[in-house]
């Protein structure tokens, strides 16, 4: 995709490189950022207390919601591609202030995920260490903050590498994890699930007195699991034939992970058992896939799964850091932020300085959490507590961003430009699906925010970040003007 010269002075800001990345690189980045092994190992435990055995229902509803968001991304990325992902997509349709707000929300989401997955890498590492001591009632553990420091150093070093190498590594990691999950699902279902309850299809219903509002509130965890499926959209300026390959990567990621997540969650709940003892075991598990692997296949398989989850969590940290760095680059390039962040490293062809900043902040926040003993999310594990806090807060930011993308898609379909390109074909569907998706997101956000018990509750932290972005977008007219001019110069609307 050809781009025009940025509105900001060329002697102050480096240009994005003209690397033509193939389809599989975009797909690999999105799948790696979703982190299937990570999502299935650590995102279900927090739902047991509110939805009980109905976790598969939560994920099924989540798949419907995220598919509606995916439709809007596919619709928009056929015409707009920008290094800022939703920041450019919303800005190129609704306007610069809305685009700035969407980008600010998405940056908050990915930065929060970068912080959380760094902590979860430490939690899974300790689960692996414990798995090596099966006969010990109190297995030795490494200080989780020490593991975080080591992981951050490795992340800092890898962030300067070429994206092609990173994509290959991440794709290989997730390939192993997905294969292990498929094997585990086949074994669990083949053995008929837990002996006490067997295969229970009522997990797709509101059984056991579960309230509909609790299920809707739990959908945020499902959105968390799919967070990052649109990561490839941030590489629109670097991908070969982005109008075709970016939508293909988006649809492929949703199709692959959508079926996988619903089936794996169904198998996990039935693997532990849908009675109270099974649900308690699910909730207290440090790595659900690893524990089930040990139970249904053997200790060696459980260790393999946990090790894969460790690398998946770290790979997700790398991917979120890389995407956050690209978004910081896009902001700085468009006139918001230090000019140093708009620098493209000559050797790697990427925004290394911006990515380094993301990693450093992630490390510092984890160190602060460890030092003050905050937050307490009730899991009994400080590292997992830190992960859940920033994962939920980031999910709220991401859903706000998705809401704007839904509005942008409907806005685009209703614009004269759509009529010029498509002659009105598909307009009704193009309006109904994004607006339906927006309604789903608003309902889910409402049920998550309204029940927050303290000012520091995770959903509210995400909301605070979004409010700051909204204030900047509305009050800083000069910034909005500069960003808008840059967007107008850089975006290329095409048929």
Can you give keywords for this protein?
single chain; 495 residues; mainly alpha; 19 helices; 70% helix; disordered N terminus; disordered C terminus
Report on this model:
- The structure is a single chain.
- This protein is mainly alpha-helical and 495 residues long.
- The protein contains 19 helices and no strands.
- The longest helix is centred in the N-terminal third of the chain and has 36 residues, at 96-131.
Any low-confidence stretches, pLDDT <50, length ≥5? 1-19, 487-495
Helix content: 55-70%
Mean pLDDT: 81
Number of strands: 0
Q: If helices are DSSP runs of H or I spanning 4 or more residues, what is the number of helices? A: 19
Biggest sheet descriptor: none
**Shape type:** globular
Instruction: Report how far apart the termini are.
Output: 12 Å
Structural class: mainly alpha
The percent range for strand residues is under 5%
Q: What sequence of helices (H) and strands (E) makes up the elements?
A: HHHHHHHHHHHHHHHHHHH
Radius of gyration: 22 Å
How do the strands and helices of this protein lay out in sequence?
Layout: H1 23-34, H2 36-42, H3 48-51, H4 55-77, H5 86-91, H6 96-131, H7 144-158, H8 163-190, H9 212-226, H10 242-272, H11 276-284, H12 288-296, H13 299-333, H14 352-372, H15 382-413, H16 416-422, H17 427-449, H18 458-475, H19 477-490
Helix pairs in contact: 1-8, 1-10, 1-13, 2-13, 4-9, 4-10, 4-15, 4-17, 6-7, 6-13, 6-14, 6-15, 6-18, 7-14, 8-10, 8-12, 8-13, 9-15, 9-17, 10-11, 12-13, 13-14, 15-17, 15-18
